[in-house]
Specification:
Elements lengths: L7 H10 L7 H13 L2 H17 L1 E2 L6 E2 L16 E5 L2 H10 L5 E4 L17 H10 L4 E4 L5 H14 L5 E4 L15 H9 L2 E2 L2
Parallel strand pairs: 3-4, 3-5, 5-6
Antiparallel strand pairs: 1-2, 6-7
Helix pairs in contact: 1-2, 4-7
Zinc ion binds next to loops.
Length: about 200
Amino acid sequence: MVTKAHPPVLRELVQRLAKLPGIGEKSATRMAMFLLKAPEEYVQSLAENLVRLKRDIHTCPVCFHFTDGALCSICADPSRQTGELCVVETSADLLAIEESGAFKGRYHVLQGALAPLDGIGPDDLRIRELLARLQREAVQEVILATNPTGEGEATANYLIKLMEKYPVRITRIASGIPMGGDVKYADKVTLERALQGRRHVH
Ligand code: ZN
């Protein structure tokens, strides 16, 4: 427990660390005590990382993945120009697919899924930018890799309707990822199967 016996700076640190996902006050206190004893250099670079995270990281203007450069490393890589565009909800999903090594094309990060009950509509996602890419880039296939959840399915169906008039093949990742599952938590083999087993939807 953090008490009045703790110096204010320590108390504040514990309160801030306790807001991190999965961290309660007990773990936060343990982390704060660790940092207190850790070498100056380590704590200094950790603090710099935190500052640079907010200062240098922004979204790629093409695919909306995180980057600290003008373009993300995938958009900047000419060998990724395969004509395949994989549409995901979040950067975490993109990273999971990248880790699987099963996909060699480019991505488009929607930055969420349609959720009318939470007030998230098409204008809140990077849908307009996706359509612009279909006109601008030589896209032959759009792979819809939104999550197999109600919201992810609704988003995929909405995109299928919107893209009907474009001369692209549209596929949806299917088998492998269980209904209600999450792309970013799927293991390598499951993701590989999901991509291989994608089905033609338009
Ligand atoms: Zn990019």
